[in-house]
Amino acid sequence: MKSRQINRTILLIDGSRYSGSGTIVRQAVAFSALIGRSIHMINVRAKRDKPGLRPQHLRVVEAITELVNAGTEGLVQGSQEFVFHPGSLKVGRHYSWDIGSGGSTTMMALGMLPVLAFSGSPVTVELRGGLFQDFAPSAFHLQQVVLPLLCKMGLNAQIEIIRPGYVPRGGGMLHLTVKPLVRTLQAVMREEAGPVTKLWGIALSSHLEERQVSQRMADTAIAQ
Fold first, then answer.
1. Strand segments (E) across the chain
2. Quick check: 173 and 126 in contact, CB under 8 A?
3. Dist CA 60 CA 110 (whole Å)
4. CA distance 141 to 125
5. Can you say whether the dihedral through the CA atoms of 145, 103, 117, 32 is positive or negative?
6. What secondary structure letter does DSSP report for 46?
7. Contacts of 145 (CB under 8 A, 6+ apart)
8. Does domain 1-90 have CATH number 3.10.180.10?
């Protein structure tokens, strides 16, 4: 990625707008890192039952901070306000981050993807936390749906599910490998649904092997 001048003019972002969720946090920090403009975010996750930065949001901001040598103010768990000052993008080749809870590793991966796409060299990151939970795309959705679509747009990224992880303990692990963009992302137009070529699914359960839960789910799906 070519070096760019850092814009220290702070942009104020109200985290209570629209969904008032962690998505605003992740996207705002990622775009701040890419364009080199500082942000001051207020009302972080104001519309959630537990407002403020949760471990999964805090960790993605810390990760992007490391990737671009950024400076921060007020970046602590539970904070509803923080400042992010991006620095120069100097990405290494391997990273490992642990959310420390069942927080979504897939949402963390999506938050980091825009920055990693402009890294200048292939990057592999290991993310630990939750891979399957409510209100977040599963690791399978990211692997089988989102990344193949981004590939059509020109982004070469893959994930490998090393170990499942569930709420509340987490403990899951995935590896995300991203190769830098070699051209501008291309728009993908899908105005009509394509033909159905295959119908398949994955039955997954944890500590339920004796009760054969995964097998019974698979058998029921096949029988429908």
1. 7-14, 37-42, 71-73, 81-85, 94-98, 123-129, 156-163, 172-179
2. yes
3. 10
4. 18
5. positive
6. T
7. none
8. no
Helix (H) or strand (E) holding 47, with range, is none
Record the pTM: 0.84
Domain with CATH 3.65.10.20 in the chain: 1-90, 91-190
Compute φ and ψ for 182, nearest 5 degrees. -105, -5
- CA dist 88 and 103 (Å) reads 28
* Higher-confidence position of 180 and 29: 29
Do residues 165 and 98 touch, judged by C-beta distance below 8 A? no
Query: How far apart (Å, rounded) are the C-alpha atoms in residues 127 and 136?
Result: 15
SS3 37: strand
Strand partners, 163: 173
The pLDDT tens digits for 9-40 are: 899 999 999 888 889 999 999 999 999 999 99
- Fold classification of 91-190 is UDP-n-acetylglucosamine1-carboxyvinyl-transferase; Chain (3.65.10)
* Residue partners of 94: CB distance under 8 A and separation at least 6: 123, 124, 125, 126
Strand, helix or coil for residue 173 = strand
Report yes or no: 123 and 138 within 8 Å, Cβ to Cβ.
Answer: no
